[in-house]
Specification:
The protein is an alpha+beta fold. The chain has four helices and 20 strands. The strands form six sheets. A six-stranded mixed beta sheet has the order 9-8-3-2-12-15, with no helix packed on it. Strands 6-5-10-11-14 form a five-stranded mixed beta sheet, with no helix packed on it. A three-stranded mixed beta sheet has the order 1-4-7, with no helix packed on it.
């Protein structure tokens, strides 16, 4: 039994290392629902015009960089723009604004220069792939529900968060920001603020991991391999024995130490 646990550990480790190899940067065309989520928006700033103070924030929920080029951002009306070039890191925020953000005390990651405005009444902020598949969207019917100059921050972001979110008064997925910004505004552009983020996957029970490891070892051992003497061998398991007995044309396969050496070379 101990020998089989060792084999399972070795093969499971190999599979883990293979799966953990670095992946290429994701593109907007390959994103799944909620790969990006709208985590904050300010539709009615104070002390500056709406065109200078409006902003919204998105969060990359994946473990990879995302090239946002060709990402479509629009409302349900005529406001829309296509991101020209921007990389957002894994588990990171990106802030979009109509202006340079200087008067509001932050530097936006992307300036859309009048292509979109966030109305103070009802509006939407939708993130779409180039093929128009929805990634994430927030809809609201009161852009300054918490008061002038107070941004709306997503309450919580988990694996169960829906891709269609609702701000006041359509729903209460967002709460009032409490972090101060210049000119009497409140928000946390580029930071979590009051948003609780927990995207950790639910761990699988140990029994599931052991079952997966057992399937892995069977799949690897029951393949045709080349013996040191140049003879192709079919490796099999004799279930009638207390320990594994390997069958093939060469008696050397009955030596468990030989299997150790074979696995050590994989």
């Amino acid at each position: 039994m101990a020998r089989w646990i060792t084999y399972s550990f070795r093969i499971s480790t190999l599979l883990f290392l293979s799966a953990a190899s670095p992946a290429a940067t994701l593109t907007a065309a390959t994103l799944s629902p909620n790969s990006l989520v709208v985590t904050e928006y300010l539709a009615n700033p104070v002390g500056v015009s709406d065109s200078e103070g409006e902003y919204f924030e998105i969060f990359n929920t994946t473990n990879f960089d995302i090239d946002l080029s060709d990402l479509i951002i629009r409302d349900d009306g005529s406001n829309n723009f296509i991101v020209s070039s921007l990389i957002i890191g894994p588990a990171s925020f990106a802030v979009f604004s109509n202006f340079d953000g200087v008067s509001m005390g932050f530097t936006p990651d992307y300036i859309y220069s009048g292509s979109m405005s966030l109305t103070n009444t009802d509006d939407e902020i939708g993130l779409y792939r180039p093929d128009d598949m929805l990634i994430n969207k927030v809809a609201y019917s009161d852009g300054d529900f918490f008061g002038d100059g107070i941004s709306h921050e997503l309450n919580e972001l988990t694996l169960a968060t829906p891709s269609l979110l609702f701000g006041p008064q359509l729903g209460m997925d967002y709460m009032a920001a409490v972090s101060g910004l210049p000119l009497g505004n409140f928000g946390s552009p580029g930071f979590a603020g009051g948003t609780s983020i927990d995207l950790a996957p639910v761990p699988l029970p140990p029994a599931v991991w052991m079952f997966g490891a057992a399937l892995s070892i069977l799949g690897w051992i029951r393949r045709r391999i080349t013996a040191p003497g140049g003879i192709n061998e079919e490796v099999d398991i004799d279930e009638k024995c207390d320990g594994p007995v390997l069958h093939g044309h060469s008696s050397s396969w009955r030596d468990p130490g030989h299997l150790d050496a074979m696995l050590g070379r994989i």
